[in-house]
Amino acid sequence: MATQTETEAFAQRLRRALEASGVRASPTVLANEFNLRFWGRSVTPHTARNWLLGKAIPTQDKLRVLADWLSVSPDELRFGRQGVALKVSEGDATIDAMNMADREMLSRYLTLPLNERKTAREVIKALAIAASGK
């Protein structure tokens, strides 16, 4: 049985994964979106609420569906960051920057020809400048 701290940490990771995927952390939204992807017995908004509030952790089969949908590894979602993570400095904060979607994007980037990599770097640089307001 998971401890209170484990379930709360899971809830935090789930909310971060939802936010990173552009999904509102609402029990109803989570339950509806999850049920579209899960072939077993559907979950209720109450169950999804318990996941979001750190009162329960989904079973492994449900965890796999959540992880696949949110582009994170099941282990990362359930237990937190595993292995070596790339650290990126952002102002005074250092953040773990490599979730599963980021690793997939980086893998695709590395398959590009050098001139297309340069273009991708320039686009990312321009987006970062625009986001910083400079």
Automatic annotation (TrEMBL):
InterPro entries: Cro/C1-type_HTH, Lambda_DNA-bd_dom_sf. One of its GO terms (molecular function) is DNA binding. Residues 43-77 form the HTH cro/C1-type domain. It comes from the Bacteria. This is HTH cro/C1-type domain-containing protein. It comes from Limnohabitans planktonicus II-D5.
